Amino acid sequence: GKLGRYPPWPGKIVNPPKDLKKPRGKKCFFVKFFGTEDHAWIKVEQLKPYHPHKEEMIKINKGKRFQQAVDAVEEFLRKTKGKDQASSHNSNEEKNRRNSSEERGKQSAGEEKRKASLSEGKLKKGTGEGKKRISSVSSERGSKSPLKRAQDQSPRKRGRPPKDEKDLTIPESSTVKRVMTGTVAGFKWPPSVSEPVKDSDPHFHHFLLSQTEKPAVCYQAITKKLKVCEEETGSTSIQAADSTAVNGSITPTDKKIGFLGLGLMGSGIVSNLLKMGHTVTVWNRTAEKCDLFIQEGARLGRTPAEVVSTCDITFACVSDPKAAKDLVLGPSGVLQGIRPGKCYVDMSTVDADTVTELAQVIVSRGGRFLEAPVSGNQQLSNDGMLVILAAGDRGLYEDCSSCFQAMGKTSFFLGEVGNAAKMMLIVNMVQGSFMATIAEGLTLAQVTGQSQQTLLDILNQGQLASIFLDQKCQNILQGNFKPDFYLKYIQKDLRLAIALGDSVNHPTPMAAAANEVYKRAKALDQSDNDMSAVYRAYIH
User: What are phi and psi of 198, to 5 degrees?
Assistant: First the structure.
């Protein structure tokens, strides 16, 4: 997703501090987010009623922190329900007294109604675009300017709501009405080609790269797997076909799954495959890494060839082009286990030439091949929230649907073999260059007498705000470089991206400069630390 984009989060309207002025412009409420200490001014079109969107929100979100937020909402609702019932009798008496009043009473009642409408959440459905999340409101100055910027940059003209917006009153008691989900920071509810299928898993999305009659390439949002239908335009989309249960859990494929390579990424992937009920056979160059997964129910393969020969679909995730080739072409390698109908999915981040060569030798033996490198890190791998870029055999892509749902949040099918490798290198080139720029900025702040923490706070309030930026800066500020994405691998990806540019005579000066900084960090023994350790290249 975009930088600074977050899922919807439950919150409640509260009274702002007396010394905190309300931002000018569009109507907004002061919201406290459950499960956190965050408060923010949130515009009305960014708010949705809690109950109608509760189930959808729970399916979209993952993580302990979000679950704690939902628990806090439910506890709040339980506590307030009794209070509302006890106060309803008094409310009716008060209403009768107001109704019996003369003209002054009518005016008063009208005023009360207006206030109630404001506080009880007569909210508008918003599109969710162009929003920012303002974390804790620490001072008047700290909260006003980011909000003013957000309003100034809004694509809509003031006082002119879109045609499809309608007033939405929350049909709950007066206290409960103040509980809503805020679609902060530009979250969009998941798109669909047609009506969402009831049993589809809403947190996972496939995207199919299709060529339409127009010269421009377009992505079509598609769900789940299996059933391919022709659209009027001649492009195709994959629709859900009973791939998930009604509650959103994944129905695992009945095919036997093999997995080769249990590094930072592979370990999380295998763990999630097992959790979702897949039958998995594992192999790793250092066999002791397999022990944990054997305890979780995986089977042990003695060689890559054995895993491929005993499984229907075998995935591999190794470090670089040399390791990927050795795994397939080496002694007791993947190729020796390939026979007609066997499927091989390479999830390693390598160059297009390497993956094309591997595809050719697999297919020459009657096998089916899919490249599927993943964008993410160890944490996202563990959480089953990777982004999968696939290319090659599209039928195999569909057969991998339940596996991709277990390990990722989004999948893209990009066409012929080599496309995913190129796209993955470009993505990591951007990420690696950005990481080097972050380190450069933090060290420049330090040597010029500026607070690094304040720099991070400023960036987090601006358009660059993102989980990646915050986490990597925190790593640096805390001196914690435990690997989430090995520095040596991001340098490898930069090197391969530069070579990709060379192959088409395209300049990559930013990546080249970043690559030199990572090479220096490697010379300073930072290879096996996190990519954020590139910071140390600037302080020696």
Answer: -60, -40
